[in-house]
Specification:
The protein is mainly alpha-helical and about 120 residues long. The protein has seven helices and no strands. It starts with 9 loop residues before the first helix and ends in a 12-residue tail after the last helix.
């Protein structure tokens, strides 16, 4: 069997890493999309992982839920941002608010779009 091709996109790489970390094969992950046949499920996930296709929003939600990760993680523009998304997703809502408050008070932020709630 030939070695798998490396993912062509950040999304595909993160999807593959998350799937492998959960111990799932491509067919099992495809099944969460309702693709029961291995001949349909595995190729679909393979295309996502290679960057040949992107899932629609509904499929992305199902994939993220099956992998127990936030959708935003897969689309983060950088590794530090992806890691921060994972960190925040593992905190309670109260802890998220505390960390956000701390960051607003202690980190230099570019002015522009404000995330302050009023």
């Amino acid at each position: 069997m030939p070695a798998p091709l490396p993912p062509a996109s950040t999304f595909g790489r993160r999807l593959r890493e998350a799937r492998l970390a959960r111990g799932m094969n491509q067919a099992a992950l495809g099944a969460v999309l309702g693709l029961e046949e291995e001949n349909t499920a595995a190729p679909r996930i393979s295309r996502y992982e290679r960057g040949d296709r992107m899932p629609d929003n509904e499929s992305m939600e199902k994939l993220a839920a099956a992998l127990e990760l936030p959708v935003a993680y897969f689309h983060a523009a950088s590794e530090p941002l992806a890691e921060m998304i994972l960190l925040m997703s593992r905190l309670t809502p109260e802890q998220q608010e505390q960390l956000l408050h701390w960051a607003r008070q202690n980190l230099p932020v570019q002015h522009g779009l404000s995330t302050d709630r009023k």
